Known about the structure:
- The protein folds into 2 domains: 1-30; 39-163, Sandwich (Immunoglobulin-like).
- It is elongated and about 75 Å long.
- Strands 7-4-3-1-10 form a 5-stranded antiparallel sheet, with no helix packed on it. A 5-stranded antiparallel sheet has the order 2-9-8-5-6.
- Residues 40-45 have low confidence and may be disordered.
- The chain has helices at residues 2-22, 42-46, 108-114; strands spanning 52-58, 60-61, 67-74, 80-88, 95-100, 116-121, 129-132, 144-149, 154-160, 162-163.
- Helices cover 20% and strands 34% of the residues.
- β3 (67-74) and β4 form a beta hairpin.
- The protein is α+β, with helices and mostly antiparallel strands.
- It is built from 3 helices and 10 strands; from the N terminus they run ααβββββαβββββ.
Amino acid sequence: MNMTKLLIGAGIIILLVVWFLFRPERLFISKTVNEDFPAVSAQLENQPDTAKILYQGSFHGVAHDTMGTATIYQSPDGKRVLRFTQFETSNGPDVQVYLVAADDSNDSETVTNAGFIHLAALKGNIGDQNYELPSDLDLNKYRSVTIWCRRFGVNFGTAPLTAKFS
C-alpha cells in the first residue's frame, strides 16, 4: 500500500515536471498583442515623414508557419525600434526574439553558427508588437530577425531584413 502511494506521488511529480518543461497547452493557446508605436516614436504615426524605415523584411516559416513583417524604424531622436506587424507564429515555451548575423536563417543551425543578439521574450505569437534595439547595435552585422524557441533550440521563423533608408 505504501509503495503504491509512493509510485503515484512520484508519477504526479514527474507529470508536473514534464508539463512545466514542455508546456503543451501553449500549442493550442495563442497570445495576441496589439501595441502601438512606442511613446518615443508616437509622432511617427501622425507624421510618417519624420520616421525613417531603416530595414524591413517578411517572415517565412522554418519549423513553424510564421508570417508578418519586421521593420526597424529610427525616430528623430535616434532611437531604434523593431516592429512586427500582421505577425503570427506558433506559441510555445520560452520563445524569444533574436537578431541574427546572417542574411537569412532557413534552419536552426544557421542561427547558432552565425551568432545572434537576444532582444527579448516574444510578447505574443499573434499581433503587432515593438522591441527596443540597443543604441550600439550594428545593423550591418545583424541582418535577420528570428523567432527562437530557447527550450528546444528551434528556429520558428525568420525575416531577412533589407535596407530601406527612407
